[in-house]
């Protein structure tokens, strides 16, 4: 058919549709957000919990949480495409959806280019190519502008906290580490093997970062970052370089990472200004 579509997903699998998808089930909040960004929000017929951006997403029927999908609810939505989160969804459940005959595209961007590519490919699957291309180019342009402004600033050592219990951070293969680098920062745990490693509090104290950035439990809960204030010998604490950035702006693989990165760059500039005079 003239309208048939074939796209390779982030797992290297080819996803084939006879025509653009009209009924899409999204299995993660970042996927829902990207679909809206590329003009396909009105095609989402099912989404997971916490799919809360843009506000229109709140009205989409829920099919469980991203870590545990209600397969019956997915089937009830009668999708012609399911978009899954490779590292977040249950691999066995995703495979079961394939066994039931549903086309499944797996999303797992690991870089800014990967985010832009996801926008383009999801738009292709939904038949909204032009909107996807525009969203991708806008995102990459904003990131390039931040890199040009901040990338060559004096390096500054950063600890980014992803989670509290267990204490978790990111290595240099993570999207957040790319944001740190764009701002001229150096990820103090960048050399660790795991993408999202678990660490001990002593490891942070030993690393003695100049800046601590955290996302916290919600959009306006900086509890985790504030708690580091008790460690008064740390450089980040002594210089008041404990910064909170809403997690949806850095921890979702969407175009809003540009907003989160801009906030990070501003905070790192504040930290540079607080360095003692030579």
TrEMBL record:
Keywords annotated in UniProt: Signal
Domain of life: Bacteria
Pfam families assigned: Peripla_BP_2 (PF01497)
A biological process from GO: cellular response to iron ion
Fe/B12 periplasmic-binding domain boundaries: 23-276
PANTHER family linked: MOLYBDATE-BINDING PROTEIN MOLA (PTHR30535:SF34), VITAMIN B12-BINDING PROTEIN (PTHR30535)
UniProt name for this protein: ABC transporter substrate-binding protein
């Amino acid at each position: 058919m003239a309208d048939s579509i074939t796209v390779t997903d982030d797992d290297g699998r080819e996803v084939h549709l006879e025509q653009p998808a009209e009924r899409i089930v999204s299995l993660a909040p970042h996927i829902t957000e990207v679909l809206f960004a590329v003009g396909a929000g009105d095609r989402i017929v099912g989404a997971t919990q916490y799919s809360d951006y843009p506000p229109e997403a709140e009205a989409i029927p829920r099919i469980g949480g991203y870590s545990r999908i209600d397969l019956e609810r997915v089937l009830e939505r009668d999708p012609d495409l399911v978009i899954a989160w490779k590292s977040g969804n249950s691999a066995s459940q995703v495979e079961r959806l394939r066994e039931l005959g549903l086309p499944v595209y797996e999303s797992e961007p690991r870089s800014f280019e990967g985010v832009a590519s996801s926008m383009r490919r999801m738009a292709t699957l939904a038949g909204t190519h032009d909107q996807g291309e525009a969203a991708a180019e806008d995102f990459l342009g904003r990131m390039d502008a931040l890199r040009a402004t901040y990338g060559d600033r004096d390096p500054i050592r950063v600890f980014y906290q992803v989670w509290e219990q267990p204490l978790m951070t990111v290595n240099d293969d993570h999207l957040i580490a790319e944001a740190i680098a764009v701002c001229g920062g150096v990820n103090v745990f960048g050399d660790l093997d795991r993408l999202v490693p678990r660490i001990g509090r002593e490891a942070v104290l030993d690393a003695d970062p100049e800046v601590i950035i955290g996302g916290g439990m919600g959009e306006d809960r900086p509890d985790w970052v504030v708690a580091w204030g008790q460690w008064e010998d740390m450089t980040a604490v002594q210089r008041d370089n404990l910064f909170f950035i809403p997690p949806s702006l850095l921890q979702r693989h969407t175009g809003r990472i540009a907003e989160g990165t801009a906030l990070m760059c501003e905070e790192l500039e504040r930290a540079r200004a607080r360095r003692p005079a030579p």
